[in-house]
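Q: My labmate handed me this sequence with no annotations at all. I'd like to see what the chain might look like in three dimensions before we decide whether it's worth expressing. Could you predict it?
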Amino acid sequence: MTAQESTTESADTGSDSNFLRSIEFLTGENPNLGSFLLVVGLVTCVFIALFQFTLPAPISHLLTGGVLFVTVVSALFAVLLDTLGHFDRDTADVAAESGTVDPTDVTEPWALDGTVASLPPVVDFDDELRAFADLYDGDLPAQFDPFIEDYRRLKTNTRNRRTIASDLRADLNPIGVLFDEGTRGNDLYEEVGDRLFRYIRGGSTLTVGHAVFYDGSGDETAVEDLAGGVGHVELAVENEGETADIEVTVQFFDGDGAPVSSQTAPMGTLRSGAGETISTDVFVPEDAESATTTVRTSGPGSDTETVGPR
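A: Here is what I predict for the chain of 310 residues:
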């Protein structure tokens, strides 16, 4: 199944769920097909008896026909609902569809069924929540409930994630008071908090390896040995933030550390959680003896990571 098909299927499922929830005022919560048809039959009998015994013909016959027509339509409606799986649904399934799963009813209340928007690794806290749960034998205290609720929102939202991340950081406060300094729980708390701060404040979510320069023969070469010619630079980049376009800037310095020149080249799109080795050709100035390499992401809250000198 392609990503587009999966997204379409998820959207169709969500539309069905919204429709089924919107008609619960007719069928009640956790409806049963037999009970629904029984109620329809009883109401039909009551109205037919009322019309037949209180109204003269032909009015009583016309109204009785109308009641029978409504009964047939209701039966067909019930069959349609049964085909859509509205009847005899488990309470857990209903809660999962509505996104209001009681944390006490599932092993991992932060988990979501179906297709959800992927999280950048920097704010993917599934492993940390499992570690927290292990500290409490799987039964997290109530202080975690607001964090889990907002974390589920973060998983299904791609537009205002930094705002939700700010809510998550506030939700951490009651969790932090549960642990003493130096404990495993406190270490997890601080790690989650630090990563949230990085994400919220637009801190770097890029991990960049050391830049390596090569000459025309493909041999690794020092920058000063490439002076006055064209060199090839390579470096490994890992993106822990959102999917973004990235660019590389190589800045050259002379023997005194003064900047000589810089060159910037776009490197395309780097997906969230992906790591790639990127490379570009650069002209090395005559008096260049060292260089730094800066990788930037584009868009709001752009990140920057610089390595060097080389």
